[in-house]
Write a structure and sequence with these properties.
The chain has about 650 residues and is mainly alpha-helical. Strands 1-2 form a two-stranded antiparallel sheet. Helix 16 runs parallel beside helix 18. It is flat. The two termini are about 45 Å apart.
């Protein structure tokens, strides 16, 4: 009969580690044998690992090194063709029949052959008088076939595991339905005889339902035991039937206790622990014993379990600590190389210094053992991606920088010629707009070689200044209008400052908006007063916004947050919105980088040249504000995905 003999209070005293199988612990990583250099970083990262060597000199991937030594030994060395033939045969199996250890050993054997071939090939290449740096490994069709076969095997195994998970979830739902029906029967105290046959069917059905997800097993068993005990205790089942079940259950549990006590003699701690887990599963399937014996028999079983658990914990304590230390060190290495800002590397020496840091980090990584299995592969993927991104960017930089600067010089020379052709024009408005467009286009062009930078900039700015000085002399009458505009803007500033702190908020907001509209309607002011009056205006408006809690940007952000909340649960929409914001973010960063690079080439003395410089600085400030807003929106989406 499917009954339980522990009370809820007893179950609370069972530690999870006493009844749960641990995750498989990875073996230590072997010593590193190969050095990593920039030119073969892709070869180093093949199979998602930094190459390491085992005791036999064979290369194995970092995840594969966790296989036991005994499993990696084969009676007779296999050829590469035999390895591929064996993988072909394995790939035709179902996922349930695939041995992960066998596939790992075959892959290790193949890579050992491949490494020896490459060493011989490279030696022959150098022996022929070639430079070692020019060596490129030959392609191996068998290696490509092995990759295809491994993917087929991996997919088959993944499908098998997925089916198992689905079956466990279905079993969990079925068992929960059984528990709910048992609870309903326990509440119906007037129909013992009618319910008991159904009770027997349900307990058997619970046992036959199969495995459930490990994370739900303990709570499910506790709920099931509680429901069964309520049925027996509250409904007063026929004593003869109950005594018979108790006697049978006692005999079965005594046998389980004897088996648990014998496990102390098992030399292999891991084997003993796993067998103990099987005994716990069987214990759960056995029903309760007489109430007066429950504590005694459970304590015996628990004491035998505690002995095995202590041995198991002591056995793995040192390894877990070592894996924790390796995880911290690998995380530190990742963080260190991720701090290298590729976008800030603007010359040869900075790239070479960064390269030395990357190579030193790779050497340090190879000397470390495994981190915990749940993070080791993720850490390596993170480290390898950073290295790959760095060397890809470095190659692109040195290939493109010379062509880019040559092209930039040609474009800037063309702008100088166009500006020089316009500088004598007296069509002030049309020409001013044209020269302004030339200046905007100049800002979008990157740097040129240093020996040309000052010369080309001076040529361009001289042409621009010449035109604007001529226009200034010809349009002096415009200054009177600008002075009148200045007076009107100063009056608006005085009016804004006159708004009292105790003014009703709605009235103050309306007044501020009105004055802002009036400000926008006023034309240009004298250039020498432009920055001063604009700064004074922004300051007084900013103070009023803060005092009367006028938050347009915050309102826009709150509206955006509302839209994101509406999308919550729709991963596709959130993903598309995030991609759009990321693209906008990268575009803003590129614009800031362009402006900042251009600022480095400014060397002006004229008023119009200084005005252009200040205009670029203001644009950079505005772009940085936009950048912060985009980053905040992306963080908001990440919190809701």
């Amino acid at each position: 009969m499917e009954l339980r003999d522990q009370s809820s209070a007893e179950l609370e005293n069972i530690r999870p580690e006493e009844v749960s199988l641990p995750a498989e612990v990875s073996a230590d990583a072997p010593a590193v044998t190969d050095s990593v250099v920039e030119s073969d970083v892709n070869e180093v990262c093949e199979n998602e690992t930094v190459p390491v060597g085992n005791a036999g000199g064979e290369l194995v991937s970092e995840p594969e090194a966790s296989a036991s030594v005994s499993e990696s030994v084969v009676e007779r060395p296999m050829t590469k063709e035999e390895v591929i033939a064996r993988l072909e045969e394995i790939s035709s199996r179902s996922g349930a029949d695939v041995s992960r250890d066998e596939v790992t050993r075959l892959r290790q054997a193949f890579h050992a052959f491949r490494k020896n071939e490459l060493i011989a090939e490279k030696g022959a290449f150098i022996a022929d008088g070639n430079d070692e740096k020019d060596y490129l490994p030959s392609l191996d069709p068998l290696e490509e076939r092995m990759t295809v076969l491994l993917n087929i095997i991996k997919e088959a195994k993944a499908e098998f595991i997925a089916r198992q998970d689905e079956e466990r979830r279905a079993n969990l739902a079925r068992k929960r339905d059984i528990i709910r029906e048992l609870d309903e029967m326990a509440a119906d105290t007037d129909n013992v005889n009618r319910h008991f046959p159904r009770f027997r069917e349900l307990t058997q059905a619970f046992k036959d339902a199969g495995e459930v997800p490990p994370t739900d097993a303990t709570d499910l068993w506790r709920d099931y035991q509680a429901a069964v005990e309520r049925f027996y205790d509250q409904l007063k089942v026929n004593k003869d039937l109950r005594d018979y079940d108790f006697k049978k259950n006692l005999e079965m549990k005594q046998l389980l206790i004897e088996e648990a006590e014998k496990l102390e003699e098992e030399a292999d701690v891991v084997t003993a622990f796993r067998r103990l887990q099987d005994l716990h599963e069987k214990w759960r399937d056995v029903g309760p014993v007489a109430k007066e014996l429950r504590d005694e028999i459970w304590n015996r079983f628990k004491e035998a379990s505690a002995i095995i658990n202590k041995k198991y914990q002591a056995f793995f304590e040192e390894r877990k600590e070592r894996e924790r230390e390796n995880e911290e060190k690998k995380t530190s290495i990742c963080e260190r190389v991720e701090k290298i800002d590729i976008t800030s590397l603007a010359n040869h020496s900075s790239w070479e210094q960064a390269t030395k840091e990357i190579l030193a980090a790779q050497e340090e990584w190879k000397k470390l053992g495994f981190a915990s299995k749940k993070v080791n592969n993720a850490l390596f993927a993170r480290f390898r991606k950073t290295c790959d991104d760095f060397f890809t960017a470095k190659g692109d930089y040195f290939r493109q920088v010379r062509d880019m600067r040559t092209s930039n010089l040609e474009r800037k020379t063309a702008l100088c010629e166009r500006a020089e052709a316009l500088k004598d024009s007296t069509d002030w408005k049309k020409t001013a707009d044209a020269i302004t467009e030339l200046q905007k286009e100049w800002k979008t062009i990157g740097p040129v070689d240093k020996k040309h930078s000052d010369i080309i900039w001076r040529r361009f700015i001289d042409a621009c200044d010449y035109f604007f000085e001529c226009r200034k002399k010809a349009t002096s009458g415009q200054r009177r209008t600008e002075r009148e505009n200045l007076k009107n803007k100063e009056e608006i500033i005085k009016t804004l400052k006159a708004i009292a702190d105790d003014t009703p908020r709605d009235e103050a907001i309306a007044k501020v908006k009105e004055l802002q509209n009036a400000w926008q309607a006023i034309g240009h002011v004298p250039f020498r007063d432009k920055d001063r009056v604009n700064e004074e205006y922004r300051t007084v408006v900013g103070n009023l916004y803060e005092h009367f809690d006028i938050r347009e940007k915050r309102a826009r952000m709150e509206a955006f947050a509302g839209n994101i909340r509406e999308m919550q649960g729709d991963g596709n929409r959130l993903g598309r919105e995030r991609e759009r914001l990321v693209r906008a973010l990268e575009q803003k960063r590129a614009e800031i980088k362009t402006y900042e690079n251009n600022l480095g080439f400014f060397n002006v003395t004229s008023k119009s040249g200084n005005a252009l410089l200040r205009d670029m600085e203001r644009k950079i400030d505005h772009l940085k504000e936009d950048l912060k807003a985009l980053e905040e929106k992306i963080r908001l989406i990440d919190q809701n995905i």
